[in-house]
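Before relying on records like the one below, remember that each one covers exactly one chain. Contacts with other chains, cofactors or solvent are not represented anywhere in the record.
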Amino acid sequence: MLMNSPSPSRRFSNLMAAYWRKIGGGSLALSIAIHMVLIALFGTLVFTSRMEPPVEIVPYGVNTGVQKAQEELRKQVNVKTGIRQQSMVNQVRLVNPVPNPDTPSIAREVVDGSLDSHLSELESKILGGSGPAAGYQAGKVSSILNPPPMPKMWEGRCSQIERLNKLRENGGNDQCERAVSLSLEWLRQQQNNDGSWGKQHKGAMTGFSLLCYLGRCYTPDNPVYGDNVIRGIQWLLELSQKNEQGIFALNPAEHAACYEHGIATYALGETYSMARLGGTALPGMREAFEKGVATIIRHQLPDGGWGYGEDFCYRDTGAGDLSVTGWQFQALKAAKYSGLKIDKLNPAIERAVKYLVSKQTKDGGFGNANREQGYNQWNLTGTAVLGLQTLGEGRHRTEIGKGLKFANAFFQKEPPSWESNANLYAWYYYAQAFFQSGGDSWKQWNDAALPALLSHQNKDGSWQNETSSSSIGSTSPAGADRAIYRTALCTLMLEVYYRYLKVGDREAHSVFERQ
């Protein structure tokens, strides 16, 4: 009996056929059914796509593939893990991020700058493969290596393509890039747990280190070194709050504190300007920088310079000191290009320029004419020339020309040599002054100084101890911080090829005055 009964599947088919005939099934009904199924499937796809999380937007199109490449880069240079979660939140941008309140309308992004020449070596390995996905990833890498336009002042440091072009145009080479990469990684390893650099003169060493990272456009938004920059800034902001005048030194009563304050204020001003073009808000940075500049202006001497104090780092009477003045006018320069409206800034710059002019000797150099005395013109002519070049607005070509002539004659007799006259403090200023002048002056300097710098870098990225014919301007006064000081000065000299434009190529005023 069971064998003669229809199977369950056959009974189900018969029931479905009967029901189909009952509802008037035919070709029209079949067509409607098919369309309903297709509509249902389409609706499911739309709903699913809307439920997917939003696409993460990292500055200039860094996506998962590029982030993997950056992680590989970290391994290649032994970058330690454990970056703070707060910093990573700042570095990864979602759609419609919370804007930096100080960001000007002319630009609301900062060039990433994290992928230097090392990434190109890893690109084929990390982003290799074929097909549309590989092409998409390569396009994203290209968007970082060729970022959107930056203000002209910084385009050389913030675009790898422009950076390499500037290196070649100005007499640098690929070894410069490698040397800077090694030094920045060495500096990262020297950073203290509290975010500072150094042991004795933390304000200055933190400022120097920040300037080195900014010289490569490694801003707070940078995925590789942004955390180091942020922690350095935070330490300076905390330091500023510890004393009434906002001095960036652990002991404002020390003579060295006026150097420290000028250097750190300079670094914080440059950081502030570049961070304004980014998306990372750093509360308190503007206030600390303005406070630091105000302190410098308040302690400017009647002759327009600055000098050591007795019970406080600055003095308010007597004559200025050209060495101390150098770091103060660089801080004022950073304030000038920040676009901030700082009270009495322009008059302070004018007085500083007049002071620099007053220090020129009949020989054309700036400083004491007696080479055996401290603060002499062999050490400090580069300082004064750079100040007149960057702050004088083209009004002191005669004084600048005489100063460069004096310096050229000196280095023709005694070419820059690590073994005999490596006065790195003086070299730091000469490198910038000669670069600004260009032509034969720059070529003469660069042909001699560049090999000396490159050949005396240690394998770990730091620099060897220099010998000097004069203690004035050498790095020995930095004491326990000498290695950081020396490495920072050498790094900044190797970044001179692209760190700043020549004065004649810059915007007349702050890049932010167009907003």
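Residues 160-514 form a domain with the Glycosyltransferase fold (CATH 1.50.10.20).
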